[in-house]
Amino acid sequence: MTQPIAILGRGQLGWMLRRAGDRIGANVQLLDPQAPEQPAPDTLITVESEHWPDNEGTRALRQHPGWQNAKTLDTLPSRILQKTLLDELQLPTAPWCRPKVSDSAEDVHNTLGPDFLLKTDRGGYDGRGQLRVKAAENTALPGWKNEAIAESAIAFDTEVSLVGARGRDGQCVFYHLTENYHRQGVLTVSLNQPERFAALQPAAEAMLTKLMTHLDYVGVMAMECFLVGDQLLINELAPRVHNSGHWTQDGAAICQFELHLRALLGWPMPKPHERGTTAMVNLLGMEHQKEWLTVPGARLYWYNKVCQPGRKMGHINLQHPDPKVIAQWLRTLPLPKEYDASREWALERLTS
Ligand code: ATP
Ligand code: MG
Q: Would you say the CB of residue 185 lies under 6 angstroms from ligand 1?
């Protein structure tokens, strides 16, 4: 029997971690964040999300001898602490400040310019807990500004993310930079084209290595960046497997879920072999459709959740050595009208 791993969380990320564990003989158990059982003392405890409810059970887990990455999980879930750490390590990020109780929008505009975002310190995800504030629109700041950061809006060329892992011996491995398209702050499509950002890869790896090493982190971490010219600005860090790494399930011989478990268990972590261009489409706020399965290359992952507007219900990976074939599959994939811009964005890249 291998050393047990418990994941705090039973959402899709927990489920995909367990599924990856089943394949390689790792012993993975999922814990209900509302009332987690206390695992056996030799269990390694990791999280599917850096935000979890505060209750008796989760407080006890943090005292468990197997609780992993305490320093990281005490720091990154707070945008204030995360941004402070980036500044300390002199890693580039969007200019930011902490609005004071007495600050008006104009005060913040004076510091950050005519267009900024207010982001809650904790708990935001999928674009929630964010407010865009433009000088031209005379927006009043909401009551939660004291528990938020303000951040300049960046006129980025595109968004990329780096997913990598650090092992117990301090060695780090990475996938190629992935390009991401968001609709209203929520990821719709990720594209992995290994050569596309080859020139930025060393700088990106150096940034995430510095962070993971500083935090003495073990496991998979994702670094979301804005790309402005040839400059990477860190948008945010996720100390866990990440939506922009889902393509690795079909585009790499070791997917991000397996890599996270290998890192925690101290198992071998060679640089994952990648299969070439891979696309991932998030299925947001829609019911299951068997018609997706008419596309020969569509690999569907369905999360079996109750459908709500905008909710991540599943994803589809498309992988083929020839990007033109992926483009053809993507053209025929049944998707609602709201996906037109996301699909066009990906087709442009796959066919150029
Ligand atoms: P998730 O958990 O899905 O990654 P989130 O709620 O944590 O999202 P962010 O990653 O901070 O939120 O923002 C979501 C998206 O909103 C970004 O990927 C980007 O498209 C846009 N965005 C966020 N901050 C900025 C910024 N400073 N300038 C321009 N766009 C931004
Ligand atoms: Mg994000």
A: yes
**How many alpha carbons lie under 13 Å from residue 281 in its C-beta half-sphere?**
30
Q: Which residues surround ligand 2, an ion (CB under 5 A)?
A: 224, 236
236 lines ligand 1 (CB under 6 A): yes
User: Ligand 1 pocket: which of 12, 122, 130, 231 to mutate (most atoms <8 Å of CB)?
Assistant: 130
pLDDT digits (tens, 9 = 90+) for 248-286: 999 999 999 999 999 999 999 999 999 999 999 999 999
User: Which atom of ligand 1 is nearest to 117's Cα?
Assistant: 27
Q: By C-alpha distance, which of 158, 131, 150 is closest to 83?
A: 150
- Percent of residues, the chain, with pLDDT higher than 70: 100
Cα 187 to ligand 1 centroid, rounded to whole Å = 9
Are 193 and 277 spatial neighbours (Cβ–Cβ below 8 Å)?
A: yes
Cα(104)–Cα(302) distance, integer angstroms: 45
187 CA closest ligand 1 atom index: 3
Q: How far is the CA of 51 from the centre of ligand 2 (A)?
A: 14
Contact 194, 274 (CB under 8 A): yes
All domains of the chain in start order, with CATH: 5-68 (3.40.50.20), 95-152 (3.30.1490.20), 158-351 (3.30.470.20)
Q: Is the pTM of this model over 0.90?
A: yes
Nearest CA to ligand 1 atom 7: 125
CB 136 within 8 A of CB 322: no
Long-range contacts of 127-132 (CB under 8 A, 24+ apart): 127/182, 127/184, 127/185, 127/186, 130/185
Q: How many CB atoms lie within 10 A of CB 82?
A: 21
Over residues 114-157, the pLDDT tens digits come to 999 999 999 877 777 899 999 988 788 888 888 999 999 999 99
For the Cβ of 48 lying below 6 angstroms from any atom of ligand 1, the answer is: no
Cα-to-centroid distance, 283 and ligand 1 (Å): 19
